[in-house]
């Protein structure tokens, strides 16, 4: 398997330097920060004026900001088509990702229920779904663009798939240590269960749609359907649950992502997808091995 290469003009030392994976990564960092700041400003304005609906609109606009910046970065800096967001397979791959995210969360919560740690005690109306939609849409796009489309892809092109998988999973988990109620158990859990799973989806398809769909649906289902905390954020859901028992079973106030059921279920799915990628020859060797 060959990585996605930038379109480097021949006999151009400047573009050769710019197109080194680490130079591209360094150039992308200020872009990501600028997108995050702009999205935050838009979010404050819209939420202040329009409450819950403003939060959903802010999430959509924030996702569009990240998408537009990434598209421009690939087209004008890497000088190539944005194959990671190819239009034709977008709907089917998004649908598969969304269905997979909901199915994985349903399985995790089902295991918690079997262990006596989760039961439904009431219901909420659909008017509470604005916040879960927002925390599904925005992280689904922004984090997948930053962590998979840039960080994983560029490290993979340089150091190979295994190193990129380890590094991206580590930073994805570490990035959640600053969330409310976060623990090192939660960070390690997210690194394994989501870092591996989402990278594997990208490796199989070499596109972002499926990973975006699964990430967004995971967040939405966790809070919006099952009413559990989402990475430390308290989110109302259609189901009002009673949650109790050991934190290793429930994830505590951080949510199921910090639980053993989530680690077991999601990591198993991620490992199975990695095996599919390996069998399909989707793993990339380090750059110095490819040069041989």
Fold blueprint:
Layout: H1 13-18, H2 21-78, H3 90-114, E1 118-123, H4 130-159, H5 161-175, H6 184-205, H7 209-225, E2 239-243, H8 247-250, H9 260-279, H10 287-291
Antiparallel strand pairs: 1-2
Helix pairs in contact: 2-4, 3-7, 3-9, 4-5, 4-7, 5-6, 6-7, 6-9
Concise account of the structure shown:
The chain is mainly alpha-helical and 292 residues long.
Structure description:
The chain is mainly alpha-helical. It has one domain. It is 69% helix and 4% strand. It contains 10 helices and 2 strands; from the N terminus they run αααβααααβααα. It has helices at residues 13-18, 21-78, 90-114, 130-159, 161-175, 184-205, 209-225, 247-250, 260-279, 287-291; strands spanning 118-123, 239-243. Strands 1-2 form a two-stranded antiparallel ribbon. It is globular and about 70 Å long. The mean pLDDT is 94.
Key terms:
globular; 10 helices; 292 residues; two-stranded antiparallel sheet; mainly alpha; 69% helix
The number of helical runs is: 10
Helix content: 55-70%
Percentage beta strand? under 5%
Distance separating the two termini = 14 Å
Largest sheet: 2 strands, antiparallel
The helix/strand series, from N terminus to C terminus, equals HHHEHHHHEHHH
Number of strands: 2
- What count of domains describes the coordinates? 1
Mean pLDDT level: 94
Radius of gyration: 19 Å
